[in-house]
Amino acid sequence: MVVVSSRREPYKPPELAAARSSQRGPPNELSTSHTMADDPPSDIMQCGTYEELLSLMSSIRTESAAVSAHLRDVQDTRLPPLSFALQRLDILGASLNAPQRAAREVTTMLADAGFVALRISQKVRQLDKEQSRVQAALEYVAQTQELRSCITGIYDATQVRDWEAVAQHIHRASKLPTELVRGRFAEAMVPTEENPESPAVALENATESFGALFLREFESAAKAKDMEKITRFFKLFPLIGKEKEGLDVYAKFVCSIIAAQSRQMMNIKVEGPLFFGMVISRLFENIATIVDQHTPIVERYYGRGKMQRVIERIQLETDTQGGIIVDTYFDDRNVNRKLSEIKSYAFSFLVQSFMPNSNLIGIRTMSPVSPSVADTSGINVQDVDTLMNETGVMLSRWSLYCKFLAVKWWSQQELPEITTSPTAKSSTASLAKPNGTASIDELTSSSPARTKGIAATQLNIPPILLDSKLYMKMNTRLAPAFESLATFFFRRSVEKAFQIDEPPSLYHLPPEPSPTSPLITSAIDDVMYVLNAVLERTVSTGHAHLIRNVIGNVRRVLESDLVGMIQRKMRDETYPRAPGVPSGNGPAPPPPEDKVNGFLILLNNLDVATEYIGRIVLTVVKSCGDGIVVSVVPFGDDHVQVVATLQGMSSSFEQRVRELLNDGTQVIYNQVIKARLRPLVHDAFKDATYMTQGHGGTEEAEESASQQQADLVRLRFAYGWDALMQPIRKILTERNYSRVLSVTTEQLSIQLERRVWGMTGRVNELGAIQLERDVAGIISHVSQGKWYFLREKFVRVAQLVMVLGLDEQELEAGGVEWVLTEEERRRAATIRIDEG
Q1: Are the CB atoms for 772 and 793 separated by under 8 Å?
Q2: How far apart are CA 480 and CA 497, in angstroms?
Q3: Each residue of 131-164: pLDDT tens digit?
Q4: Is the pTM of this model over 0.85?
Q5: How many CB atoms within 10 Å of residue 755?
């Protein structure tokens, strides 16, 4: 077992280690065991013999001597610097004695001052605390005195029936803290022999008793129509904390006025086509006048936003009275029966007109001089017009009322609350009944400060209208009735317009039709007049959903019935067909003149209808307003949707008509112009020669002959062209004639180009110049005046005849924006014969 000593090894200087190493000598393999035995043990506890103990002691002495020698060496080498450093420290320590003493003195002085300051601050805090307690006690006592004064004042004012003073004392007492009123100090100091009750009980009893008293007095004054007393007690309710009761009794009073006025107007029963529209207009105007005139008074005494509670009660009464008017209107005017008759009307004329082999083609069932005569169906269009007008007035007044109420409602929420309450005697404002009523439009725009900044996208329908029974009745009964009446009235007017349709007179026509008096049938003027009236009435209702529905129905009638009837007449009645087949090799006979004229007039109908509808839509869009509160449809994005619907109707009709006009233009060209255009070109160039000889005469004679031939070709073409196009020009509108002329000139350019290509080998150098003059004369005649833009149609033929007059070098010189290809130019150069 090996015992490991825990004793730390002694320090062994290098000299001792070297000495011991030299004493041992070099190791020997044979004496390894002896060397190990001679080494002294490292611990005295390991010594087993006396010799080992002596050896260990000798080793210790040696080590001790080495350590002593080493320490002496260290002392000799390092002691002088340490001594110098110690001397410096002694010097520095001596120099710090004075600051140390000064610091001790300052510390002692500051400790004394801090103690004094602590005592002073404690005293100050104690004084502040005592002062605040004294101030609170004084304020508490003052408030208690105020409470006692208020209660005493209530008792004294009651004795003399000074209700304003009573309300003021209660109002002052209500501002005191609740803890003070219910505190023991107030209960001990405030009660008196006359008022032994505690302050809290006394104030509560006074508030309830005087609230009931003011309520009875207000109702009594309302029954007696004593507006001075009504105003007097209306001001007192908020002072005693009875705001809700005051607003409710005021709303009840206002509702009684509204109901009485409504019953009075309904009992008059003035016969007239707009009686119910007038009654509901007066109802809404009375309500709007009351709300507008009384809102500043309510806000002054009750605070901002308090008028909303009154408006809610007024709206309930409006639902009742407005519902009575609407129901009575439906009963007295037999609206439901009229709507049933409208739904069962078959529109037999329109339906049979679209059937093949219709017997109604060209038949007029009524003379234009008596449009008021009732038709055989039993539905008088004038009665429908009257009902639609009255229904539209009612919806329009309702829309204006909703806009007015929305402005008032949201203005109550946007503006800050009033926190101060004026005294009852500080104002002479009165709730007196207004002497007259103003229109809702004037009332809506009379307060620009309240409506400023409210855009169409910010004005929403208030919740009281969304929950209103009258709102539902207007949307579910009156609006659908107007939609059915307007749709029927417009479609029946379209049917009646075609029944009494008459063509324009074609005698003594000017060379060009007047742009203000186009040649159209009477149906277009009639339909456009009715369309303008229907759209204006519909938009004036202010109901975006209704407006979109009616416009959609009107668009379907325009595109299916109006355009369909004109298209059917163009196909079946006035299509310009030739009366027979050509005989032999002669040209086909032209279509009958009355058919051609009728077809052209129907094209004018389509073109003028498109123009009129565009103008009507533009006028109606302007009447919708600019999208702010004064707009006809101010709620949300209704204004944008209505304008988009109107513009969509116009663009859809224009697109539908444009296709039909393009087809009609092709029919006019194919059936009327095409058969005469090729002979016209042939006759213009008849006997014209372009192999002009350059000898046998003087230069002046050749120039004269060339000019005569050029004039002859141009004059022949102008005569034939005018004879062909002038009858069409006299009838068509400028846009329609432009379409026909564009198609015709395009085909004329093709005819001229073919004729030039067919002259190969029959044109010499001088003849090419003459041919270019002839073609230029034709182009100039066709594109004269406002039709100058038609020259673009002749670019190919103009370049073709120009190539004939150029030599090879001029042709290759460039500088021309060619429409002809290079191959066509080389081919055109071969048309001319160069005489050698």
Answers
A1: no
A2: 25
A3: 888 888 888 788 777 777 787 777 778 788 888 8
A4: no
A5: 17
